[in-house]
Design a protein that fits this description.
The protein is of the alpha+beta class and about 300 residues long. About 20% of the residues lie in helices and about 40% in strands. It has five helices and 20 strands. Strands 1, 4, 7 and 8 form a four-stranded mixed sheet that branches. The chain has a four-stranded antiparallel sheet with strand order 3-2-5-6, with no helix packed on it. Strands 9, 12, 15 and 16 form a four-stranded mixed sheet that branches. It is elongated.
């Protein structure tokens, strides 16, 4: 009888183990160079769940994980900074493959630091060098970040956070020097004329020709001028609605003289993306300004 109970217990244990295994998924990828000594760590809520080493011969790794969402960190002694892959989803019985991970060797002693404005939970900065992502990290509670031991060169810093428009800035890092670059993440809110995904601001203006103009050429020029002025006013109204954080928007910030002058300077950088003349000589004009990026509104705010 005892033997029978033992057999039943073993069978139950095997079934439970099989059910548990069925709920697991796998994470795999490849690290170059293979001999980098890379460690891959899966984290949830800031705590390490599992760690594996990449194979020193081919750089491959494979990790079994329970289904769920993980933040993956890849580190190596020879690398100047860690690689971060947030929000990786593991599904039961499936294998998730990360993009190839390439470590740049530590060939410099420059530092790049800065702050993401406003500080936001889950904000992340990525460092792009020669067209490739070289590093990524989450900011601290104050929005600060720092990359150490960077090779000299020209980098693109990309900042992102859930519910915010991504920002990007180009920064030149000199050998053995410290560089600083801040970024602005605008909270995404419904505003007519703002394309959050493309990082663009659009405004339309309409101009009517005067009836007493000397000729058609003058009528058209005056209608153009009126359409441009109308579009510029509408552009300013649109920009004023963009929020800087939970309590401030651009309009409230423009009460300060220096900030107001910056925005007025930013408005002068518009481009005309379309112009249309309809019956009666009415002119409709559409202007565009960059919201984010090297020449965007975010740069004027950080500077």
């Amino acid at each position: 009888m005892q033997t029978y109970h033992k057999i039943i217990l073993v069978l139950v244990t095997l079934v439970l183990f099989a059910c548990q295994t069925k709920q697991d998924g796998n994470l795999e990828g490849t690290v170059t160079p293979p001999n980098a000594g890379a460690k891959i760590t899966a984290m949830q809520s800031g705590k390490s769940v599992s760690t594996v080493d990449a194979n020193t011969q081919d750089g491959k790794f494979r990790m079994a994980l329970a289904s769920g969402v993980y933040d993956i960190s890849v580190t190596a002694p020879s690398a100047p900074f860690p690689m971060s892959f947030p929000g990786i989803r593991i599904e039961p019985g499936k294998t998730t493959t990360l993009s190839p991970i390439e470590f740049a060797p530590a060939t410099g002693k420059a530092n790049l630091s800065g702050k993401i404005i406003p500080p936001s939970p889950g904000s992340e900065v990525k460092l792009i060098y020669e067209g490739k992502e070289r590093a990524a990290m989450h900011t601290d509670n104050e929005g600060k970040y720092e990359f150490k031991e960077l090779p000299a060169g020209t980098y693109v810093l990309r900042a992102s956070a859930p519910g915010h428009a991504e920002d990007a800035a180009q920064v030149v890092v000199m050998e053995n020097q410290k560089a600083e670059q801040n970024a602005v993440l605008f909270p995404i809110t419904p505003i007519d004329g703002v394309d959050w995904a493309a990082g663009k601001i659009h405004a339309t203006g309409v101009g009517m020709p005067p009836q007493n103009a000397a000729n058609n050429t003058v009528r058209h020029a005056m209608a153009q001028r009126a359409a441009l002025a109308d579009a510029q006013r509408n552009m300013l109204r649109t920009i004023e609605q963009i929020r800087l954080d939970d309590q401030h928007d651009v309009k409230t910030a423009m009460r300060g003289k220096n900030f107001s002058e910056k925005i007025q300077g930013f408005l002068k950088g518009y481009i005309v993306v379309s112009e249309h003349e309809s019956t009666g000589g009415k002119v409709e004009m559409v202007l565009e300004l960059p919201l984010t990026g090297p020449t965007g509104l975010s740069r004027y705010i950080t500077e």
